[in-house]
Amino acid sequence: MQQTNFNQLLLEFLAASPTPFHAVEQMAAELDRAGFERLDERQRWQLKAGGRYQVIRNGSALIAFTLPAEADLAATGLRLIGAHTDSPCLKVQPLPERLKQGYFQLGVEVYGGALLNPWFDRDLSLAGRVSYAAPDGQLGQALVDFKNPVAVIPSLAIHLDREQNSNRSINPHQHLPLLLSQPGIDGEKPDLRGLLKQQLQRDGVAVERVLDFELCCYDVQRPAMVGLDQAFIASARLDNLLSCFVGLQCILADQSGGAMLVCNDHEEVGSESTTGAQGQFLESVIERLVPEVEERNRLIANSQLISADNAHGVHPNFSDRHDANHGPLLNRGPVIKVNANQRYATNSETSARLRQLAEQEQVPLQVFSVRPDMGCGSTIGPLTASRLGIETLDIGVPTFGMHSIRELAGRDDAYSLYRLLRRFQNRR
Fold first, then answer.
1. pLDDT above 90 covers what percent of the chain?
2. Using one digit for the tens of pLDDT, what is the confidence trace for 351-370?
């Protein structure tokens, strides 16, 4: 696949994936078209040599894998690529409706470590998963996406707070409720469930009543190539749907078997869930791949995981926030992430192996290590490594504005990461 086509497909994937549920739906559909059989965790699995499979949990996490046709899987091991489907955002509260000063508003809760200032004065929509009762009484679930801009969070005029540019503090409860409409002071009481029912019916879903929902706000501005020479990719949810997309393209292209893609949910809030990296989703899949303990231990010892999650590029306006020797640049290649306190799982052995692969593929590599007097983020890498005992390396594409409503990455880096991870999967 050429880089131009790759980036165009990436933009389309980002635009179609406003929530983890939508991202998994998109990935599963691509895997379906490539012949990956869907497995149900509630059923017995009948796996075959040379088979291609996928399994989804909670609609927001996905594991896909290929099996070798002849080789002993425990002896060859798995080549795993890990990423996560969730991104910091604003989630609608369970009882969100507010009627204040004649305006219909929805209360929201901040999910993850979101940058809040960029959410103001944006054209926002709502998307997520809805659970409902059908006319026949059966319970159903459906994805919903209003697509059109249906909400906004207006800023307060500078005239009413002269200190905003120098001292702005955001109270999520007070300042972030969404503005949807103006029914009037004596207007009809707002009903989000009613709106969701109408939207689902427009989508062709037979709904008697909406029982519950999980909704995210998102900016309707589409992903784009930006800059004088279009050197940058601008989009919401680059952290970490970019890595999900790269991993998806890698496993779709795998022909030899023994490859696995792991897309967890809830990384941005600690990974402690049934779908998170601290849960047992991956562990349970591996146990079903190799039920016998001794053989499974051999499999894990012979396997390798690359955790792909975005890295902090050195910002030209804030270069002092980086260590001078560890400031990755956009469009200069993927970034190996290293931390002495195991916030990243990379060690000298896993790093050396990747450097060798990069040389073979002629892909440039960079290194990120946080400034020693600053705190360091983490990824699913150390969590998966500690739970399974699997050899792991953390890598990512350098980005600006991480956790903003719109992030920025380099035009060349996602494709370079794809080439490198393809080389990794083919290594035996």
1. 87
2. 999 999 999 999 999 999 88
Whole-Å CA distances, 87 to 26, 70, 76, 148, 413: 16, 39, 34, 21, 20
The whole-angstrom separation of Cα 335 and Cα 346 is 11
- Distance of alpha carbon 345 from its chain centroid, rounded? 19
| Tokens 């609608």 -> residue | 92
Tokens of 278: 């601290």
CA-based Rg of the chain, rounded to a whole angstrom? 22
Query: What dihedral do alpha carbons 306, 309, 313, 319 form, nearest 10°?
Result: -100
Rounded to the nearest 5 percent, the helix, strand and coil shares of the chain are 30, 25, 45
Delineate the domains of the chain, giving CATH numbers in brackets: 3-87+236-426 (3.40.630.10), 89-219 (2.30.250.10)
Of the listed ranges 176-185, 246-255, 350-359, 414-423, the least confidently predicted one is 176-185
Report which DSSP code applies to 204. Answer: T
In angstroms, rounded to a whole number, what is the distance separating the alpha carbons of residues 271 and 278?
5
Which pair of tokens denotes residue 269?
């809030």
* Statement: residue 428 has pLDDT above 70: no
Three state DSSP letters for 57-119: ECCCEEEEEECCCCCCHHHHCCEEEEEECCCCEEEEEEEEEEEECCEEEEEEEEECCCCCHHH
Angle, alpha carbons 381-387-388 (nearest 5°): 90
Of 315, 334, 296, 392, the closest CA to residue 75 belongs to: 296
Q: Which residues pair with 126 in a beta bridge?
A: 217
Are 47 and 53 a contacting pair, CB within 8 Å?
yes
Three-point CA angle 188, 192, 194, nearest 5° = 75
Q: Residue 185: is its pLDDT beyond 80? A: no
Taking the CB of residue 232, how many other CB atoms lie within 10 A of it? Answer: 18
Residue 221: both structure tokens together: 């501005």
The answer, yes or no, to whether residue 263 has pLDDT greater than 70, is yes
Q: What is the dihedral of CA 225, 228, 229, 230, to 10 degrees?
A: -10
Per residue in 320-357, pLDDT tens? 888 888 889 999 999 999 998 889 999 999 999 999 99
Q: Note if the pTM is more than 0.90.
A: yes
Condensed to tens digits (0 to 9), the pLDDT of residues 286-309 reads 999 999 999 999 999 999 999 999
Strand ranges, E, within 135-258: 139-145, 178-181, 209-219, 224-226, 232-235
